[in-house]
Each structure stands twice: as C-alpha cells, then as structure tokens.
Design goal:
Shape: extended
Number of strands: 0
Largest sheet: none
C-alpha cells in the first residue's frame, strides 16, 4: 500500500464531539474514531478490514438505539420503501 496521510480539522464538530466523548465514554470514543478512520479509507478507495468495520457499525447502531429508547424520545416515523431488483 502506498503512503498516505489523514488531515484532521481540530475545530470540526465531529472532532470536537469526539474529544468530549473521549472524556465521558472512552470505549465508545475509541470505536467512533476507528469508524471515522475506516470511513475515510472507504472514501479514498483504500483497503480496510470490512469484517471489523461492519461489526463496529452494528455495535454503534445498537448503542444509539438503546440510548434513544432509554431517553424516552419518540423515534420519528420512517417511510419504508421497497427496493425492487431491476
């Protein structure tokens, strides 16, 4: 693999939010940083461990759904669309 670099804007709301999350929930913050990095790899068409990426995606979705349900907030109604094979 060729050399590459990742540029981080420290004032971007994702990075600021990750910094706050790091102090409150280091495990979740670590998961989010790995997810952000892997998403950047995908966007740049670079190889990544898709099995780890998918597993982390489902774990983070579980966490978000659990937090949403525990908070008692209503989940917005979602329009379901059928995907037909063409």
């Amino acid at each position: 693999m060729k050399d590459f670099s990742v540029e981080i804007n420290p004032s971007h709301k994702l990075i600021v939010g990750l910094n706050k999350l790091r102090k409150e929930d280091p495990k979740l913050a670590s998961m989010a940083v790995k997810q952000l990095f892997d998403t950047s790899m995908l966007a740049a068409n670079l190889p990544l461990q898709t099995k780890d990426y998918v597993k982390r995606t489902f774990s983070m979705l579980d966490i978000m759904l659990e937090q949403k349900l525990e908070s008692g907030e209503k989940v917005e109604e979602v329009k379901v669309e059928r995907l037909d094979k063409e």
